[in-house]
Amino acid sequence: MKNKFLGLLVPLVLVFSLVSFNAFDRDEEEYQQASFFKIDSKGELVRPTNYRSWVYVGSPLTPNDLNNGKAAFPEFHNVYIDPVSYKHYKKTGKWRDGTILIKELVSVGGKAAASGNGYFMGDFIGLEATIKSKKHFSKEPGNWAYFSFTNPKGGTLANTSKPFETTQCNSCHNANAADDFVFTQHYPVLRAAKNVGENTVPENSGKR
Questions:
Q1: Is 0.85 surpassed by the pTM of this model?
Q2: Which residues form the Cytochrome P460 domain (predicted)?
Q3: Cα gap 99→97, rounded to integer Å
């Protein structure tokens, strides 16, 4: 009776294992192919509209006051990353092919509040994006490309954007970014998440 039971159990275990591995393969394939951006027939990036539901990682600010009145980027930069790429970064410590980061530009609206003096957000003034894609940007260093939907004269954002020339953004990221063209040194959320594990909640850490 015992041998008969074992004889039935072994095939069941094998079948279950095969099903599990196949399911894992499908999940991994879908995981890698998940896309949160669209490149149109002209090679332009279609402006993402749902990025505020993604993972928010921080809002760096380099105000004019601290840069002799001539800061290159005097506005707040609210940065979001698509959830699949964030999950992959937690799992592997690397930026997957297909990563997109959105940078929402917000003006400095004031320098005083009930809590004290500081820098406080004003109005939305622009939107930019960064994408890693070997398929679309195989000739770019690291396969990263950079886009802006911002209207220089203000007003409505553009619906599509051409990638910047390599010398405009990519070369600076290549020379100064800490982690594969991404300035993770300025984002404690990303520093804490790197390679921590796919299903692990990153803990706060003061490490750089």
A1: no
A2: 48-184
A3: 6
